């Protein structure tokens, strides 16, 4: 497992995504999905946890196995008052993106904060195209 800490500011979302992608083997069949779930988990940590307050931080962990990649984001725990979501605010939301892409997802509160974890299996990307669909190469 590889881990890296980041400052809890929005500008670190792309840095965390690039770092996570750098942990993957060349030709990883789920690289695009890893980029999306990493961005969503990190954005959630910055916007909705104590990691996003001044001086806050979060950690991203990536573990690659023969059959999957696991991405974890460890934040400093929920804010006492949840961040307000403005009308028309962007974002699909953690449940929508991660639940649709990941083969498993779990968020756990710990004494030190919260861990949001997901697993993306390699087999999920090797499904055959639906009838009438072509594989673009």
UniProtKB/TrEMBL annotation:
Keyword Transferase in annotation: yes
Stretches assigned to the Histidine kinase/HSP90-like ATPase domain: 10-116
InterPro entries given in the database record: Anti-sigma-factor_SerPK, HATPase_C_sf, HATPase_dom
One Pfam family this sequence matches: HATPase_c_2
GO molecular function, one term: ATP binding
Record's keyword terms, sorted: ATP-binding, Kinase, Nucleotide-binding, Serine/threonine-protein kinase, Transferase
Gene3D superfamilies, sorted: Histidine kinase-like ATPase, C-terminal domain
Record PANTHER family: ANTI-SIGMA-F FACTOR RSBW (PTHR35526:SF3), ANTI-SIGMA-F FACTOR RSBW-RELATED (PTHR35526)
Name under which the protein is recorded: ATP-binding protein
Species assigned in the record: Streptosporangium jomthongense
